[in-house]
Every structure is written in structure tokens, then in C-alpha cells.
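Project outcomes to date are best conveyed with an example. Our students and postdoctoral researchers have been running inverse folding experiments weekly, and each run begins with a structure described purely in C-alpha cells. The record below, which covers 78 residues, was selected by the lab manager from last quarter's runs and is presented without edits.
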């Protein structure tokens, strides 16, 4: 599977969302809301929406064909 730029952006957003949910679950602290002015702030809502869309996009990773052309095959020892 070859990653494209959008794949990395989406993966970074999903990781950001996962870290934020970890903070919420462990510490009752919403990092995104704290940085961008609260849950109702427009910037926070945009980031939450981008994280959700990135998560949906990352589902496409499961349906992609695997490209193994970069993997070198070893000959068995005889």
C-alpha cells in the first residue's frame, strides 16, 4: 500500500482525535477545546469535523490493494 499526502494528513488527524479522546477519558480534559476556545468555538467544531472525516477516509485503507513491489523476496537456503 502506497501512502499519498492525503493519507498522511488523514492519519495525523485521526491520531490527534485519538489523543484528544484519551485525554477526555483519562483526565476529563478536552485538548482541542482548551486550545481553540471551547467546544462551541467554530475552530474547535471545524477540527472535530475534520477528524471525523479523516476517520471515515482512513476506512478506505482497509479496502486498498497491497503493493508488495518494494518487498525483496529471499531465496530459501538449500
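After processing, the design step wrote out the following sequence:
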Amino acid at each position: 500500500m502506497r501512502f499519498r499526502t492525503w493519507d498522511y494528513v488523514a492519519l495525523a488527524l485521526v491520531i490527534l482525535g485519538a489523543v484528544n479522546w484519551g485525554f477526555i477519558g483519562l483526565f476529563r480534559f478536552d485538548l482541542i477545546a482548551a486550545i481553540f476556545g471551547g467546544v462551541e468555538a467554530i475552530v474547535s467544531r471545524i477540527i472535530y469535523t475534520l477528524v471525523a472525516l479523516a476517520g471515515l477516509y482512513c476506512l478506505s485503507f482497509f479496502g486498498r490493494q497491497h503493493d508488495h513491489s518494494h518487498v525483496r523476496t529471499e531465496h530459501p537456503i538449500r
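The radius of gyration is 18 Å. The chain has one domain: 5-63. The training component of this project remains on track.
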